[in-house]
Amino acid sequence: MKRKLQISYILAIVGFVCTYLFSSMNNPMGTAFIRSFICFVIFFISGVVVLSLIEKIVKEATVSSENAVQEEGVGQQVDLSTPEDWVMPEADAEHAAGSEGEQGFEPIQFPRFKTKEERSPEEMAKAIRHLSDQ
Hints:
membrane; transmembrane helix; mainly alpha; transmembrane
């Protein structure tokens, strides 16, 4: 815990100094100090939170590795054999059957759009000219 606070203080002081240096160029000293203090608080809290999360993750990793050492042999071998009585699923069985019940390929027949009446090219050109004038 002490080490975590030390790192957070160092991070916060670095944030304070950087913010003060960049802010003092364009702002009065009071404004620069207030902004630097706000940055100090934000960096300190962020440091504590991030370091706590890292500590928690490391603890979980070490606990899980200790459990893995205790259960030696578990998960060390992979069984690559398949059982002899394995049955192919139905969809694959129909596809693999091939000649049995094969009906051949038939493309999908989509219905065609029908117009009320056929229009001549002159009427179409007249309609386009009329629309482009408006």
